[in-house]
Amino acid sequence: MNCNKRPDNMDRITTKELADKFIEEQVALVRQQVGDKKVLLALSGGVDSSVVAALLIKAIGKQLICVHVNHGLMRKGESEGVIEMFQNGLDANLVYVDATDRFLDLLKDVSDPEKKRKIIGAEFINVFADEARKLTEVDFLAQGTIYPDILESIKQAEGKKAVKSHHNVGGLPEDLKFELVEPIKLLFKDEVRVVGEALGLPHAMVYRQPFPGPGLGVRCLGAITRDRLHALREADAILREEFDNYGLNEKVWQYFVVVPDIKSVGVKNESRYEGWPAIIRAVNTTDAMSATIEEIPYAVLHKITERITHEVEGINRVLYDLTPKPIGTIEWE
Ligand code: XMP
Q1: Is there a single domain that holds both residue 302 and residue 261?
Q2: Alpha carbon of 186 to ligand 1 centroid (Å)
Q3: CB neighbourhood size of 130 (10 A)
């Protein structure tokens, strides 16, 4: 049997009972595969890697070593949240790496979107590999591969071109040879969430909106600067806070701020005030292949505009992106 093919008779995991059964099976399989050896996992804090972490902690406890790489392109509070949940909450064996300077130094003056993506992807592997080399006696690498990833690789193997180069922890250097542990590779995203909740991960975490691997790097358009990245991070935090306040977080699939590398003239305290615009994007989709624009109530847009322009240094306008996919992709880069 091809173990990368979902069996035709595999039940869709829609209930806690089915999730519990899946977890029990996977715990046994992982223990059988790994024995008393150590397993490494790149824990981004996204749904997939978090569910794999929780599952493996249940199966093998401290034999799992989670490495959280902060590439400096995380959203506000995100890395702190990963540490809080996994190190403090689940008592995970967690290595935290703040690689902000490594990434931002490499990205300095790079404005081409694909080059930026490639640099971030490659450096992520470098940082992770550096950590892996420091750890001895690790034989396994766990990955949050899910079934759509496998279907996507099949498509690419058949010669269909991806629109953007996506980033994940594939392709480690030759000297690092691990056997893979991929306990959720036959699951679709909705099933991963049901399994996550059955493992006791918080609802908000398991149902959180997708966040791209290159992070805020693809939302701080063009060549990234620290001040504009900081403004983007603060504006994005306000957007998320207000979406939570108005209950839109449950309704809208993905919402975020983009800050382009342009300035316009404004006025503040009776003086000329040049600043960047914050562009809000809020989309709904089922499969991310196409997306429609959410009709955000005017009052919410108004509140967000007021807060961002008053609270975020460097932003003097707020715009709402009305472009569906296609023609725009969800991310701007
Ligand atoms: P686009 O911009 O192609 O995005 O319409 C579709 C969905 O994919 C997310 N995205 C990524 N996810 N690594 C990821 O894991 C990436 O490099 C990446 N780039 C885009 C995007 O946020 C949207 O949900």
Answers
A1: yes
A2: 20
A3: 14
